Amino acid sequence: MHESNSVPPTLSPETWDVVVIGGALAGSSAAWLLKQNNPELRILVIEKSTAFKRRVGEATVEVSSYFLTRVLGVQEHLMKEHVIKQGLRFWFSDTETKGWDDASEIGPGYNVRLSSFQVDRAKLDSYLLDRCLEQGIVIWRPARVKDVTLKDGGEQALEVERDSGVITVRSRWVIDASGVATLLARKNDWKVINTAHPTAAAWCRWSGVPSWDCPKLHAAAPAYAKRCYGVRNTATNHLMGDGWWSWWIPLHNGDVSIGVVWDERIAQFPAGDSIADRLRTHLATHPLSHRLLAEAEPVAQDSHIRRPLAYHSKRTLGDGFALVGDAAAFLDPFYSPGMDWVSFSVMMAVDVIGKERAGRSYRPELDRYAKQHQVSYQRWFDGIYRDKYYYMGDFELMHIAFQLDFGTYNWGVASQPYKWGPSALLNAPLAGPHTAIPAYLLKTYNRRLVRIARQRKQAGTFGRHNHGRAAMLESYKFDLSLPRRVFRNFARWGGLEVREGWRSWGGETPAASAS
């Protein structure tokens, strides 16, 4: 519990400048940044838990790594208490695949140039909230927000339940960082489930999972050992299937977070006595999982299932409130965009509140950021995720998609804060004034790959390169080589269209028939 600097419990109203609902990553980073920029602010963080429970192991990517290290300044904590991540790695199989030597692989051939982190969220959330306490931010924990009454441009009112009763809390600004609870979005009927993306996830933490770099594995699979010069185990490894994928994220204490995400139009999660048993059964369809889980044991009380996954809020910013992180939207865990979204949404909220407190014009920025949220969510969904699960299980199609997805992300999104500083995080991906053409290109090649996947399934050639192929990639640099690589990969997509895509030109891709 955090009580050392709490205001003494009272049933009379309390008045604050900013109240933050939720003390995990999004809430604590928003509170800490506001206090750093405006030391005079009276900030209250309301956290419902007495201690953060174990959560899914979570990977950062380039933008969220920048936010954590260069904006929040927690690099030392990340280096000591978490795992340095070595990129993304994907594994494909077919009925002839027996193990690592002949499973098709996509991933870096060496260690990556710009590493990120495999994060134990409970540990990181606790550290960030403790930093808020050290900065003089008041934390009520455990406490639960029962109701919020918003007033545009005025004073917001919150009913907060603590051990002493229900307290009325008033504040000029409310930041909703309640995560998937989506407190403000649900209360105000803003939450919209993305029915075009019917995905679900199940995950569990495991002990006793062998390293992807262990000597025994290298000895048993010499071709596997020779083709990669970097570290595989601390990458986010993905086992890929038709309509589903699985993440394998190593944590600092030796446990491994393993989860499966599936599109419910294509794949089904098996029945069973426990989530861990169901995970093991599902993963058994991929030949690599049996050896990885042969001696592994699930960690007690750390199994979860969630459906549906994708949603967004119709409103995310107003004159007196801001929704940040998962409280505002969630798309898909593939490519780990969640903490990027935390970075952008928190920076926008902090900027607007800072301008208002300083007596500067803030309404134009508030309106611009609110529009960016909506545009970014839709374009990112259409360009990267819509119907992607229909071709995820095909090595060749995912090889093209991954290089285009990740190349354009590095060129247009990840490079920007490293080049221009934290202010670049005030521009949501694909929502700026010159992003319509890139968004259209992403949407177009994604649609075409879905169409080609449908065509391959009808012809019985889907996954024809899932056996015995390897694409050992070079990590990106933020220089002229980056756009050149992106253009080369657009040419690779063009070659695919010339070879077989032309058969399906001139029609829409009906999602239901793509399976």
Offer a quick outline of the entry:
The chain is α/β, with parallel strands linked by helices.
How large is the radius of gyration?
A: 23 Å
In quaternary terms, these chains amount to: single chain
Architecture of the largest domain, according to CATH? 3-Layer(bba) Sandwich
Largest sheet: 8 strands, mixed
Helix count equals: 14
Q: What is the domain total for the residues?
A: 3
Provide the structure class: alpha/beta
Quote the beta fraction: 15-25%
CA-based shape = globular
Could you name the CATH class of the largest domain? Alpha Beta
Helix content: 25-40%
Q: Give the number of DSSP strands.
A: 22
CATH topology title of the largest domain: FAD/NAD(P)-binding domain
Throw out a few tags for this protein:
alpha/beta; 22 strands; D-Amino Acid Oxidase, Chain A, domain 2; 3 domains; 515 residues; 8-stranded mixed beta sheet; 14 helices; FAD/NAD(P)-binding domain; disordered N terminus
Notes on the protein architecture:
With about 525 residues, the chain is α/β, with parallel strands linked by helices. It has three domains: about 15-55 and about 120-195 and about 315-370, FAD/NAD(P)-binding domain; about 85-115 and about 195-305, D-Amino Acid Oxidase, subunit A, domain 2 (D-Amino Acid Oxidase, Chain A, domain 2, 2-Layer Sandwich), CATH 3.30.9; about 370-390 and about 400-515, no CATH class. It is about 35% helix and about 25% strand. It has 14 helices and 22 strands. It has helices spanning about 25-35, 60-70, 75-80, 120-135, 185, 215-220, 220-225, 275-285, 285-295, 340-355, 365-385, 395-420, 435-460, 480-500, and strands spanning about 15-20, 45, 60, 85, 90, 105-110, 115-120, 140, 145-150, 155-160, 165-175, 190-195, 200-205, 235-240, 245-250, 255-265, 295-305, 310-315, 315-320, 320-325, 330, 470-475. Strands 1, 2, 8, 9, 10, 11, 19 and 20 form an eight-stranded mixed β-sheet that branches. Strand 15 and strand 16 (about 255-265) form a beta hairpin. It is globular, with a radius of gyration of 23 Å.
